[in-house]
Write a structure and sequence with these properties.
Layout lengths: L25 H4 L9 E3 L6 E10 L6 E10 L28 H8 L46 E2 L5 E2 L10 E8 L14 H4 L3 E2 L7 E2 L1 E9 L5 E3 L10 E3 L2 E15 L5 E13 L5 E12 L21 E2 L25 E3 L14 E3 L6 E10 L4 H13 L6 E3 L12 E15 L2 E20 L6 E18 L5 E14 L28
Parallel strand pairs: 9-13, 12-14, 20-22, 21-23
Antiparallel strand pairs: 1-2, 2-3, 4-5, 6-14, 7-8, 9-10, 11-12, 12-13, 15-19, 16-17, 18-23, 19-20, 21-22
Length: 527
Amino acid sequence: VAKLCVCDLLVAQCDVNCCCDPDCSAADVSLFTTCSVPIVTGDSRLCSQKAAIYSLDVEANPPERIFKLIDQVNPSVFCIHATNYEQALSFSSPEMPTSENFDQLLKQFGSAAFSAEPDSWNMNTDAQNPSDANETYSYEYGVPIQTVDAFLRLPSPVVSSWCSDANPAGFLVNQATKCIRSVSVEKCGNIQAVSMLFYINSSILAVPKSSQMVNITVQSIVVQSLNGMRTLLNGSDVLRLPMILDELCINIVLGVSYHITYTDTGEIIEAAASFVLGAINKEALSIQQSFEISFTQVNTKPVPLSGNPGYVVGLPVRAGFRPQGYPFPVEILFAALNTNKYSQLTILQSTSNQDCLAAQGARTPILFGYNMISGCKLRITAAMKCQPLTQTLLDLLKGQSFPEYVASFGNSQAQDVLDWVPITHLHTSEQRIYNTFQSSCQIPVSLEIEVKWTKYGSLVNPQARIVNVTATITTTTLKQLPSGRERTIPITSSVVFTDISSPAEPGYKAWPTINAKLPFDFFFPFV
C-alpha cells in the first residue's frame, strides 16, 4: 500500500493535494491545503492489513508531508483472514472465439447457465467414490435438479430467441421462459423437443447422487386450436405424440409447466408436468414455446409472491398474523378470508353509490408503490346507537381481520419470523363535532396507512424492502341530532408509500469520482 497512489494521475508531474504522489517535491507539498486521499488500504474485507496514512504538518514552516504505515484491524466479525485463493488474485484472459474453437465454446458457454467444470454434469452413478456411500445428500437452493441421464431441462433463449435445451432447472428457483423453435410439418414427428415424451421420459433423482427416482407425471393437457381456442382434456394419462393429420401436425408441445413438491430436508418427492399442445400447418416455419417451473413444500399451501426478493411495483403487499400460543409453533399463519384470499394488505374499495353501509366487505389489495385513496359516505340518523355504529365503521375501515404483520420482502416465507414487520397502530382525534348523539360518541372516520420502505442490497440492483408500517385511525366526536334529522359524513381510507433510503456517501457507497484534468495528449494518437 505504500506504493499505491490513486490520486497520481499526471505522468512525471505533481498532482495538487495528492500527498502520496512521488513526483511532488517539498516545495510542491508546502502549497498543499489538504491530502485528497488521507488513507490508502487494500481489500477492506481483510481482517488485518497495512494502511498508509498521509497528512500535513501545517505547523511546520513550510508545511511538510507526514507518512505513517500502520496495521489496520477490521472490527467486523466476518472478514477474510488470508487471500490464499491464487486464481482470484489475477485476471485470466478469456479464450477468444475463432472459426476453429467457436463450436466448442458455444457448447460450453452457450446455455443460460454453465459450469466452470463441464465434466461435473457427467452423472455416472456407477463410479461414485466409495467414501460417499454413507454420506447423506440433499438439494440446496440453485443446485441443478438431477435426472438419471443429466439434469432437468428448462429450455430458454440464449444469444438469440431460439431455444436452447442446455439450461438446467435450479432447485427452488422459479423460472418462466419463452423461446422460438424451428419446426416443419414433414419432420414434426422426428423433432424431440415438440414431443411430450422429451419432457417426462427421464426420472428425477430424489436427492443428488442417489438411486431413488421420482417419475414425472402428467397433471393436465390443454389442446390449443389454430385460432387460439384452448380445451382442457378430461384424461391426462394418455401420451399424445406428434402426428400428421390432414396436412397438419397435431399434438406438438407449445408449453410445459413443471410443479415440484419437496420436503424441508431438500428431498424431491413429487414431480408433475402440465402441457399445452397445439397444431401447425405447412406454412409454419417456427413456433413459440413457453416453459415454467414452480416449487411447493409438502404440507404447505402455495402463497403468491410479490417479488424475489424485493417488492415489485404494482404487486400486492403481503400480510399475515401470528397464531395463538406463539412462539409455539414459531411461524406466521396467513389469514384465509373470503375477502383476502392470498393474505394481502387491503383497504376499503370505493363503490359507485358511495354508501358506506352497502360497501361492507368490498376490499381492494394495497399494491406496492401505489399511493391510494378510497372512501364512502355515511348517512347518520338520530335512531343510530353509538357502540354498534363505531364497530361497524371499524370493520368497514380495517376489514374482517386486519393483519398484524407485513412481509418485509416480496418473497418472505411464513417460517422466517424475522422477515415480517409488525404493524404499528396509532389513534388521533379530530376537533370537528357533529351534533348527533346526546352524549359524546367517538367514531372512526378515516384509516391512514403509511408504508416506509428502503432500497436494500447492491446499488446496481437495489431491492425494495419494507421497514415500517403505521396504521392511524382518526376519530371524531358526535352529538345528538334532533328527531327526524339526518347528517352525512365522509369516511376515507388512504395508503402512502415513503422511500426512506439514505443517499449514498461519496467514495463509499457510490461510485468514486475524481475531479481532475487529463493531459492534452492522454489519448494520443486518438482524439
